[in-house]
Design goal:
The complex is a heterodimer of chains A (about 325) and B (about 280).
Chain A: H1 3-29, H2 33-58, H3 67-84, H4 88-110, H5 115-135, E1 145-146, H6 164-185, H7 188-198, H8 200-204, H9 208-236, E2 238-239, H10 241-245, H11 247-260, H12 267-286, H13 293-308
Antiparallel strand pairs in A: 1-2
Helix pairs in contact in A: 1-6, 2-6, 2-9, 2-11, 2-12, 3-4, 3-5, 3-9, 4-9, 6-9, 7-9, 11-12, 12-13
Chain B: H1 2-19, H2 26-44, H3 48-76, H4 81-104, E1 120-123, E2 126-129, H5 130-152, H6 154-164, H7 166-171, H8 176-199, H9 208-223, H10 228-248, H11 254-268
Antiparallel strand pairs in B: 1-2
Chain lengths: ~325, ~280
């Protein structure tokens, strides 16, 4: 590996550490609950988008069905918690494991599909999940599950008086997703993914290796998204099929990465940092009237940004590079 | 119903087949068409069946304008072309939904007394709802017309040629943008036709497109991208599967059958039934 690449990776790690420390200190200065709420969501979506980016950005298998894994994480955690009293921490891991297994099970047939066929298959499978949960009496059907209040503790991952613990968990999740991406970027998988994305035909000649690396991407991506889902469920303490498995989550996960720069290490973080506060503020300012002004503003921004900066906002910062096989 | 799905999907397939762009605002085109025929009825008392050509013409203009103002630029993107197209058309869908909410409020509307609404006709002991029957007939005619148009007219050949090789076509003096704008207009006009017919028996609200859009994508993919005939056949299959599923499973699960069949088909034939791409 050339020196530039190693130096860049070291620099990325240092920047990330500095940013994480700065983020960790913000609650000292930001006491406003509304703002804290926006920060939590921003961190959560940064983490989710980073996880989505592993499969869709790095590996090039564009999924618009990640809401399935988000919802599975939320439902596994809360069903285990409300029906069997299993602590959310274990539920979170269980949700991640379930999602990773399902992602691999689906990968088996799905990875044969190309382009739009793959994208539509992912949308369809998430929609099937949504409809099944909608009709599943034991899981609360359309009514969903209200998470019972069992006290205020890290053990039960419930906090009634302050939002800070949620903030730190979201930060940790975001850092974890970032770190996993950073780590995988320089792994064998990372190189295979780029091969799969840049030149599917050539990659196909590598056969099994490519297939396994796609499976790996799907599993890691689904696991992290499911953890995000169970976090979200604890955070909002009420879930129903639409609120955790709706198509909007698939998009909300993809958008930050797309706006920031798909298939890049910093794209999802940058995208989320801009997009999520924007979404929340337009909703705060114009929403509530029920007249859709927030949608108009939000949609227009999406159109403009994706037209003006097809490589994402990150491309504004990087010097034009010669295109090559690596990076 | 299947033939109507076919009609919605054919418009989408045309746009896709022409230029490899999936229009994620397709459902919203449908929604606009439905509102249009609603207002034509509300203000001028024109029955949706009569206003259908008007709506189709309006949507033609709308589709062409959308292409010239937005999609043209999305197609120019060199990096991440697929993602740029998905997100520009999706952003457009969100804007259209927002605008519909703003101007028309989120209320449900319906056309109370159209010529077709709620009537049934009996053919050989079978009771068929009239709107669906007329919809089916219109779909068949529209499809036949489109088929003729693509395969028999100069402009149709220009469309095909532009799709095959946009570069070479420019050499013989065909303006790519005009052809594509026309194609978008045509695709939108077909959706307009479907929307006008559906307006006579379906509730109209800002999100109505979303519920049909996914089915339209599935229909197109089922038939195979790039095949207009496939989209039509896909529509018929989707309609039949939906009706069959509704017999076995609770109504809220009726789409599951469609999705399952889609997955099954693409696993066996990853290009859809008649797909060439």
């Amino acid at each position: 590996m050339d020196k530039d690449f190693a130096a860049r990776r070291r620099r990325d790690l240092i920047i990330a550490a500095v940013l994480a420390v700065i983020a960790a200190l913000t609650p000292l200065f930001v006491k406003d609950v509304v703002v804290q709420n926006i920060l939590i969501l921003t961190l959560m979506y940064a983490g989710l988008s980073q996880s989505w980016n592993i499969l869709s950005g790095y590996c090039g298998q564009i999924s618009l069905g990640h809401a399935l894994y988000f919802g599975l994480g939320a439902y596994t955690t809360e069903l285990l918690f409300t029906k069997f009293g299993v602590l959310p921490w274990f539920g979170m891991l269980a949700g991640g494991a379930v999602s990773a297994l399902i992602a691999m099970g689906l990968g088996y047939p799905f990875f044969r599909l190309r382009g739009h066929y793959f994208v539509i298959a992912t949308i369809v499978i998430a929609e099937i999940g949504l409809l099944l949960f909608h009709n599943w009496e034991w899981a609360g059907a359309a009514m969903g599950i209200t998470i019972p209040i069992r006290g205020d503790s890290w053990l039960k991952f419930q906090f009634l008086r302050t939002k800070l613990p949620y903030f730190y968990f979201a930060l940790a999740l975001c850092c974890l997703a970032w770190f996993v991406t950073w780590w995988l970027e320089d792994s064998k998988w990372g190189f295979w993914w780029r091969a799969v994305k840049d030149n599917p035909e050539a990659a196909e000649s590598l056969g099994v290796v490519v297939f396994n690396s796609k499976m790996g991407a799907a599993a890691v991506s689904a696991f992290l998204v499911a953890v995000g889902g169970s976090f979200y469920a604890q955070f909002v303490s009420y879930i129903d099929p639409e609120s955790v498995m709706g198509f909007q989550f698939s998009l909300l996960m993809a958008l930050p990465a797309v706006l920031g720069g798909i298939g890049t290490l910093w794209g999802p973080v940058l995208g989320a940092a801009i997009l999520i506060p924007l979404t929340e503020l337009t909703r705060f300012k114009f929403g509530g009237s029920g007249r859709g002004v927030d949608l108009i503003v939000y949609g227009t921004l999406i159109v403009l940004i994706s037209l003006a900066l097809p490589r994402g906002l990150l491309s504004l910062f990087s010097r034009p590079k010669k295109t090559g096989a690596t990076r | 119903m299947g033939l109507l799905y076919g009609l919605i999907a054919v418009g989408l397939a045309l746009i896709f087949g022409l230029m490899d762009v999936t229009n994620f605002a397709h459902g919203e085109f449908l929604m606009i068409a439905m509102y249009l025929s609603f207002f034509l009825f509300a203000f001028f008392a024109i029955d949706p069946l009569l206003s259908a050509p008007l709506v189709a013409a309006a949507l033609f203009v709308f589709g062409a304008v959308v292409y010239l103002l937005i999609v043209r630029f999305a197609m120019r993107a060199k990096a991440n072309a697929g993602m740029v197209q998905i997100f520009t058309t999706f952003g457009l869908a969100i804007v259209m939904r927002g605008l519909a909410q703003f101007f028309f409020t989120p209320d449900y509307r319906s056309i109370p007394q159209s010529w077709l609404g709620g009537k049934t006709i009996s053919i050989a002991g079978l009771f068929l709802p009239e709107p669906q029957l007329v919809g089916a007939l219109v779909s068949i005619f529209a499809f036949a017309g489109l088929y003729f148009f693509i395969h028999r007219t100069d402009f149709g050949r220009a469309l095909e040629a532009t799709r095959e090789d946009p570069g070479a076509v420019a050499l013989v003096g065909i303006d790519k943008n005009r052809v594509f704008a026309f194609g978008w207009g045509l695709g939108a006009a077909l959706v307009g036709l479907a929307g006008a017919i559906m307006a006579s028996f379906f509730y109209i609200y800002p999100d109505v497109g979303a519920s049909f859009a996914l089915i339209a994508y599935v229909t197109v993919a089922l038939g195979g991208f790039g095949s207009v005939f496939g989209a039509f056949a896909g529509g018929i299959i989707v309609g039949l599967v939906e009706a069959t599923t509704a017999l076995v499973l609770p109504p809220s699960l009726k789409s599951v059958g469609i999705y399952a069949v889609y997955l099954l088909v693409v696993f066996i034939r990853p290009r859809g039934l008649f797909g060439s791409i």
